[in-house]
Specification:
Length: 131
């Protein structure tokens, strides 16, 4: 069973899931092809709050929110030191927590659309690190 299949088995399908939405416009806005597993996750759980804690960006919001975060980083964000898509070489901003943590997948080169490393940053994460 695929990882997405296992996740679907645990979480179920959310009401109002946007399964089957087209990611062509999103990939065009971000300037990068997304891997099938990322698109699958965003198709099924995108634009949805999971367990009242994690919001997964999907086709409706992912390009808009990525542009917003990339502008914050260009202006000198105190914690996010690496570029965010659509900026060249940027990370994919794929979601956030209700506490303000932001979730990223970092492109590590090689195959186009390969994002094996994830990162988290935000006010709650920073306070946990100081403890």
């Amino acid at each position: 069973m695929s990882s997405l299949g296992q996740l679907r088995e645990v979480l179920g399908v959310p009401p109002g899931a946007v399964c089957g939405s087209d990611f062509g416009a999103v990939e065009g806005s971000l300037g990068v092809g997304l891997p099938p597993d990322v698109k699958g996750m965003c198709y099924l759980y995108g634009d949805t709050l999971i367990s009242d804690f994690i919001f997964v960006l999907g086709p409706k919001f992912i390009a808009e929110k990525s542009l917003w975060v990339s502008e914050l980083v260009r202006e000198g964000h105190p914690v996010i030191a690496k570029a965010v898509l659509p900026d060249a070489g940027g990370m994919l901003h794929w979601g956030h927590s209700v506490d303000g943590d932001k979730f990223f997948l970092e492109h590590r080169g090689g195959t186009i659309g390969r994002f094996p490393l994830s990162g988290v940053t935000g006010p709650i994460g920073m306070s946990r690190m100081r403890r």
